[in-house]
Amino acid sequence: MPRAKFQTLTEQMFYTLLCLREECCGIDILDRVPALTGGEVTVGSGTLYTLLDQFLTEGYIRETRVEGRRRSYILTDAGRELLRREYMRVTRQAEDYRKIFGEDEVK
Fold first, then answer.
1. Of 80, 35, 74, 30, whose CA–CA distance to 56 is shortest?
2. pLDDT at position 107
3. Cα–Cα distance between 8 and 14 in angstroms, integer?
4. Do 43 and 12 form a contact (C-beta atoms < 8 A)?
5. Domains of the chain and CATH, by start
6. Distance of alpha carbon 3 from alpha carbon 1, whole angstroms
């Protein structure tokens, strides 16, 4: 059975939303995600603009400004809640790992 859309987030989804805590445009996100993650996560432009459209449709972000082809966005309350739920889910996974392997295995 396929998972519900946005039930869990990919790294690209998570970091895109995280970048939108502050108003920014797609080019900003393309630069910020690798900077935030030390280059471990990148988002391709095709993926990013698809995600932005989906997040906009679902109400997780809102458009704040349009200047020519450049559009800026910011996180909505629903988007913040989505990020919080994902954070809690990943935190529970990390806690389960520690329960099984102990603190020494984390290092």
1. 74
2. 58
3. 9
4. yes
5. 11-106 (1.10.10.10)
6. 6
Angular region, 99: left φ>0, alpha ψ -120 to 50, beta rest? alpha
> What pLDDT is recorded for position 59?
97
57-62 own/partner pairs: CB under 8 Å, 24+ apart: 58/5, 58/6, 60/6, 60/17, 61/17, 61/20
**pTM of the entire structure?**
0.87
What residues does 74 pair with on adjacent strands? Answer: 62
Distance, CA of 72 to chain centre: 16
Contact 10, 43 (CB under 8 A): no
Decide if 74 contacts 61 (C-beta within 8 A): yes
Q: Which of 32, 31, 41, 71 is nearest to 53 (CA)?
A: 71
Render pLDDT for 4-29 as a digit per residue (tens, 0 to 9). 778 899 999 999 999 999 999 999 99
